[in-house]
Amino acid sequence: MLNGEQDKRPIAYLAPEIPGASSTFVYNEIIEIENFGVSVRPYSLHTVKAMVGDTRLSELAQCCEYLYAQSPSSLFKANVNVFWQSPRKYIGAFIRCNGDAIKCLSKPRIAAGLMYRFFVAGVLAHRLLKENVRHLHCHFSHIATDVGMYAALQSGTPFSFTAHANDIFERGYLLREKGARAKFVATISDFNIKYLTDAGIVADKLKLVRCGVDIEKFAPRTPVAKKQEVATIGFLGRLVEKKGVDLLVSAIRLLLDSGAHVHLQIMGEGPLEPTLREQVKTLRLEKHVTFGGALPHHQVSTWFEHIDYFVFPGKMDSNGDMDGIPVVLMEAMMRGVPVVATRVSGIPELVRRNETGYIASPDPEELANALLTALSESEEEKASKIWRAINLVKTEFNLAHNAKLLFHYICADKAERECQTSLPC
């Protein structure tokens, strides 16, 4: 408990999109923390389309406030209100924001964006004060944390943030400053901890909190009785450069040329779909590769029933961006699907070579070789990897465990290294 007493004040969450189709880990974390009996106030920068098929998500969307949807008059009134409640805090926050913008003058768009987000933060600060929020947690260390940080400075509310991938690898500005002002910085991998330490965030501020899987929703599937004549290889994700789907398509051509009988099912949408379709046509793979379109998250678990292997062929893109540890890999492993992935970012912390799956460099030939090895392994070897993969996800990438860990850090007093008390604190 916080200072020996149960604290019933709400906490607030801020992310670019809540509930976002490509950031399921954010709303899953919110729902899990609410399951602890904690009141969570969700705030989203952008409005999102209605998500059908999940009552809990519909309820979350209905109670979420969308900051960029505020009118200019609402922005003005909120900022005036926050200023009059605490002129010193507001002016101090404005001075900090100006200093931050000056540091980013070499990137004018970021500098101008910081000033705009300061005033958007006034709306959030007003809500934090009105709701008597005890802590604000932000997901993604760039724009959402900009708004959250300035709202926290304006209102005096403690804040923290979770750093993921694109927000640090491609858009990681002011990381040192954000880390210094936050109560703590959560991140999803040991790889990221080293990266953020090198970026100037004090090691004691950094906490490893994995993105996790609901192990009940993604319970292990019934083992497949025998190998299929044609192995179905699945990919699920946005069709963008860093996902490396082009590498996988090329690897499929190499597999077929070696005599393997495989079919690739690509699930997802994105700007590279026309390019990938053209690649499939050029490599004469029309009969061996299908595009299934977007897959709602509530259908993902069932989809895993129909594939023999899951492949994540991620790579660093031309802007230096790459994935962290994709949740879809954890979900596949938890369902008992054999996985093959590339050695990028923190992925080897999940897909451990010859232990929980197969890992390769982001290269078509290496990827094809890893898939050939997976296709040729015995049922005993496959079952052993699946068992180890399931146990790793259960123990280290468990949604409930990691949500509880994050909540403990939120509750921890400054003098505490880690909150060791029972929930709720």
Which topology of the largest domain does CATH recognise?
A: Rossmann fold
Spans where pLDDT lies below 50 across 5 or more residues: 1-5, 414-425
Please name the fourth-level CATH homologous superfamily of the largest domain: Glycogen Phosphorylase B
- The proportion of strand residues reads 5-15%
State the CATH architecture of the largest domain.
3-Layer(aba) Sandwich
SSE ordering: EHEHEHHHEHEHHEHEEHEHEHEHEEHHH
Number of strands: 13
In the CATH scheme, the class of the largest domain would be Alpha Beta
Task: Report the structural category.
Answer: alpha/beta
Largest sheet: 7 strands, parallel
Query: What is the count of DSSP helices, taking H or I runs of 4+ residues?
Result: 16
* Major β-sheet strand ordering: 3-2-1-4-5-6-7
* Basic shape: elongated
Q: What is the distance, rounded to the nearest whole angstrom, between the alpha carbons of the first and last residues?
A: 4 Å
Average pLDDT rating = 93
Write the layout of secondary structure elements.
Blueprint: E1 11-17, H1 24-34, E2 40-46, H2 55-63, E3 65-66, H3 72-85, H4 87-103, H5 108-130, E4 135-139, H6 143-155, E5 159-163, H7 166-169, H8 175-181, E6 185-187, H9 190-198, E7 206-208, E8 231-236, H10 245-257, E9 262-267, H11 273-282, E10 289-293, H12 300-303, E11 309-312, H13 327-334, E12 339-342, E13 358-360, H14 364-376, H15 379-396, H16 399-411
Parallel strand pairs: 1-2, 1-4, 2-3, 4-5, 5-6, 6-7, 8-9, 8-11, 9-10, 11-12, 12-13
Helix pairs in contact: 1-16, 3-4, 3-5, 4-5, 4-6, 5-6, 10-14, 13-15
